[in-house]
Every structure is written in C-alpha cells, then in structure tokens.
Amino acid sequence: MNAIQILFWFLSALALVSALMVLLSKNPVHSVLWLVGVFFAISGHYILLNAQFIAIVNLIVYAGAIMVLFLFVIMLMNLNKDTEPQKHIWMKLAGAISAGCFLMILVSLIKQAPELQAKTAMMKDGDIGLIANLGKALFSTYVVPFEISSILFLSAMVGAAVIGKKD
Amino acid sequence: MLLSIDWILFLEKLILIAIVIFASLGIALYTTFAERKVAAVLQDRPGPNRAGPFGLLQPFADGLKLIMKEEIIPNTSNKVLFILGPFLAMTAALMTSAVIPWSSDVHLFGRVIPLQIADVNIGILYIFAVVSLGVYGIMIGGWASNNKFSLMAALRGASQAISYELAMGLSLIALLMTTGTLQLGEIVKQQIEPGHWWNIVYQPLGFLIFIICAFAECNRTPFDLPEAENELNFGYHQEYSSMKLGFYLFSEYVNMFISSVVMATLYFGGYDVPFLNENLLSPNVAAIIGVIALLVKVVIFIFIFMWVRWTIPRFRYDQLMNLGWKSLVPLALANMLITGAVILWLGK
C-alpha cells in the first residue's frame, strides 16, 4: 500500500461517512457542515487525479460560496423540528425507493458507457486538470460553449436581481 | 502490510509544518503586544510596561488570564457548533501558510529542502479558497451563540467577507496576467530575477485594492463591523469566554500575520533582498537572510495594519457595502482591463 492508496481509501471513507451524515443528522446546520466535509473529500480525490484546478475551484465555489449561502438561508429561517412539517413514513419509504432506482440507473449507465469502458483513472500523471491545459482547452476548443454558459449565468443573475426587487 | 512512503520527506514536511504553525502563533502572540504598544504610542501613553522588562511578558500574562477564566457555554446554544466555531476560525487562519515560500532552499545533510510546505501550481487559488472558508468560523460561532447581536454580527461579517473577496479576486487576476503563473514560489523567483522589479511596480492599483480587501477580510478597523461594540455590544463572539474567546481574538492576529506574508510575497518580492545577489552567498546563508527579509517586510505590513486601526474610525455598514461594490469592484475591473491592454500592446 503506498501513500496514494492510503489517501484514496481515507478520502473515500471520509466522503461516504460525511455524505451519510448529511442525510442522518437532525440539525440542518450540521447537514450543511457535513456537506462541506464531502466537498473537501471530493476535492482530495481530484488532487489525487492531478486535477488541482478543479479541486480548488470545487472548494472556492461550493464550500466557500454556495454552502455559505445555504448556511445564511438556514440560519435565518431557523428550521427545527417544531416548525418543519414532518413527513409520513410512507413518503420517506417512497423517496428512498425512487432514489435507489435512480442510483441503480446511474451506476448501470456509467458501467455501460462505451467512453468509460476499459479505462482506468490516471493517478498523478494525467495533466488535463492542470490549470494551463484546462485554460487552453476552455479558451480555444470549447470557447463558444464556455462563453454561452457564462451568458447563461449572467442572465440568471439579472433575473434574480429583478425578482428580488421590492417594488 | 508494507508501507512504501518516503519517510524522510514526510518527516521533513512535518517538521516544517510544526515550525510554521508555532512561528505563526508566536508572531501573532507578540502582535497583540505590539498592537497595544503602537496604540499607546499613537495615543501618547506608556502602554503595557509592568510584566517583564518593557512589558515583554504581557502577552503571556494575557494568555494566562484567558485560560484561567471561567468557561461559559450558554444553555440554549448548540454546544457542538458553539465549540466548533473558534476551532474553525483558527484552522482557516493557519491553513493559508501551507503554500507560502518562506525562503530559498536549504541544504542540510545532503538534501535540498525547500522552505515551503507545498509548492502547488494553484497557490493563489488555494489562498483564495482558504480565505473564503474563513467565513465559517464567524458564522457558526455567531449562530450557535443563539444571541441576536451575535447573529447580526455574523451575518455582517459573512456578507462583508463575501463582498470583499470579489474585489480581491479581481485585483489578483490582474497580477496573474503579469506573472503568468499561480505558483507562489515561481512568482517570488520572477521578482528576484535581475532586471525585474517587484510586482508593486507593475500593479500599484492592484496592490491598493488588495490591501483594502485584506483589511476587510481580517475584520480590522476601519472594517471591523462584525465587532462594532457600540452597535452590537461585542459582536459575533459576545457569548464566548475564556480560551474560546481567546481563539477568536487570536485568529484575527494570525490572519493579519498571514495576509501580511501574502502581500509581501505577491507584491514585494517575498524573501528577496533588494540590490543583493543571493547567488553569491552560500545557499544556507542566503536562506536565513531570505527569512529575515520576509519577516522585516511582514513587520512593516503589520505596523501599517495597526497604524490604520488607531487612526481611522469605523465605516458605517452601508458605506462599507458602497465602497466594496461600487468603488473597489469597478476599480479592480478597470485595473484588469488596463493591465490586459498594456500586456497586449507590449507583446506586439
């Protein structure tokens, strides 16, 4: 077992445990913090795959910005057991079954995708995730979809500002 | 089970991490003392001078006092998160030091040891990520206290940090255009090269924006709204006592130290000594001189932090937001455009 394998198993365990705790913890603020833990573990996996840029952007965008907004909302709504409507046990069961089906479909899709078959993850030596290569790819080969998606974000932002206006 | 790990490298990094963390804490400890002395000088009074010669043992006395105080955890608060808050604040403050190049390589026992914990090629982004995580300590602590003033202060702190991160990021983009790399070690080496000035010469406006944002991110006056006593009693750490309060106060000083190091590294040549050719010296001597040079620059920045704190009064909250969104962001964008245009023009 070398250092990469140890890290891989550690990060996988961390990701799974944190993901379970997101679902199991009663307090929504705890859930948010466990979710931040999941993002950290996944960023660790990206680093093992030598995708440093994606790893750090994952942290900046998800852990640093989106989760802080989640925290804002949860703190101001002050959710707890008394105010939150409790769902019936059958509803929970139905939710679990449908989510399980969705998981099965995802796994089988990934297993059957011809793009992914007979490929192994490149540990340490893949270099498309490095910032220089990724930047070149984004701004030359994929420049049109990249710019269009940024316009999409801008329009979403303008939309949010318009909806959020008081009068 | 055989572990194939480079144990010497592991040990080397572990020692380096320990040194960096203890040095950061030690410097932060004496920064609290320096703050009181600087305040005293600016207000024309002697300042702490009882504990030890010139009051030099004052920080230890303060620390002892905080440790000995009664630990109070409010009854209604969320206990786990209440304890987690100061811990998060301190961790986020110390994490940034991982990517900072403290000096040139040291040659010891036939090994070349870089005085940098990790020279990752996303160094600046890493700093940015850790800065954006710093909000959690304030928010968790303020919310878990279950106190209206604390929550208000936490929300203020978080929105202030998020707003100023934006301008900070934009000012850094302009710097990246001139350096062409995100690797901090590489940025310092570029500045050391003969015929190349420090980055402050190429990015004066960018540095100005960066230092203002650094003040805001560290919650220092004039941007210390999260702890505005006359509006919020004491701020997000109102319910805290003993060493948990100490951690919050202390993490502010660690933050100040680390952001001074970052500013020195990015804009003022890091461990570079001006007008000195380091290649002529033996590598170990050059490394020691480098550390001292970096620390001198850091001390100057820390002094500026204090100087501003005891000179300029606090902003109002709407003034803070106006400055962030309506002045600094457009200014940083303009700086970015001008830098890009100049680089294009010179490149032709």
Descriptive overview:
The complex is a heterodimer of chains A (167) and B (348). Chain A has helices at 3-24, 28-48, 52-77, 89-112, 131-139, 143-164. Chain A is mostly helical and 167 residues long. Chain A has 2 domains: 3-79 and 87-129, Up-down Bundle (Four Helix Bundle (Hemerythrin (Met), subunit A)); 130-167. In chain A, helix 1 runs antiparallel to helix 2 (28-48). Chain A is globular and about 50 Å long. With 348 residues, chain B is mainly α. Chain B has one domain (7-347). Chain B is 67% helix and 3% strand. Chain B contains 12 helices and 2 strands. A two-stranded antiparallel sheet of chain B has the order 1-2. In chain B, a hairpin with a 2-residue loop joins strand 1 and strand 2. In chain B, helix 2 packs across helix 10, helix 4 (123-144) packs antiparallel against helix 5 (148-179) and helix 8 packs antiparallel against helix 12 (317-347). Chain B is globular. Chain A binds chain B through residues 1-3, 6, 27, 29-30, 33, 36, 52-53, 55-57, 59-60, 63-65, 68, 71-72, 75-76, 130-131, and chain B through 1-6, 78, 80-81, 84, 120-122, 125-126, 128-129, 132-133, 135-136, 139-140, 143, 151, 154-155, 158, 162, 182.
